[in-house]
Amino acid sequence: MIKLVTWDFNGTILADTDACMDAGNHMMRTFGGRPLSRREYAKRFTFPSLEFYCAQGCDREAIHTPGSAKVFHDFYETRASQCRTRKGAREILKWLQDQNAKSIILSNHVTDAIMKQLERLGLSYYIPEILGNGDLNATQVGHNKIHRMELYLERTGYPPEESLIVGDSPEDIGIGRKFGMKTVAITDGYFATSRLRASNPDYLIGSLLEVRGIVERLNSSPAS
User: Fold this and answer.
1) Distance from C-alpha of 32 to C-alpha of 55, rounded to nearest angstrom
2) What whole-number distance in Å separates Cα of residue 66 and Cα of residue 141?
3) pLDDT tens digit string along 199-214?
4) N or C terminus: fewer CB in 10 A for the chain?
5) Which CATH superfamily is domain 4-15+85-220 in?
6) What are the distances in angstroms from CA 91 to CA 7, 88, 99, 172?
7) Model-level pTM greater than 0.90?
């Protein structure tokens, strides 16, 4: 029985892939790098993002100065404020709640910014906890999602085998595999479909609404 569903936010719940890539290209232009098309961006992007920008030609010393993260976030947040959810997000979150399955967010983005977007979109009721970054700079110089997931599972006692993680990056799939969670990769986000497939998720989907069928099958299996 699936009791916990962990969601990535950017590109998974929020349909902000173009806003993220536009902000990334803004960073590259600002610090001397080469902007990329959406297709090339999805093929090349890696974490941490500052190293990715440097690989595209950005000035390493300049981009590592205090305040560089604000260049990205000021540009991004203006556009993100106009973004909607992925189709079916509200429907699947409500359905999971009706099944007594808890939804949380695990993200490299800043917790306060995610909370603001959830409130704007009327989704706070369905997602009671956000495991995000508290520091703006931490979103670019590294990623500690795996540590936050580990602490959460230890604190709450949710069995990983009764948990599902849904995201648009190989990172999300790797986190789920480490803890023994069922893994779902969703396409048309920040990473090319070929990269998601290579991460070997349990399920590869194109719509959030497909999560319902996955949960129903898992809940009806003999091992659940």
Assistant:
1) 11
2) 11
3) 999 999 999 999 999 9
4) C
5) HAD superfamily/HAD-like (3.40.50.1000)
6) 14, 5, 12, 22
7) yes
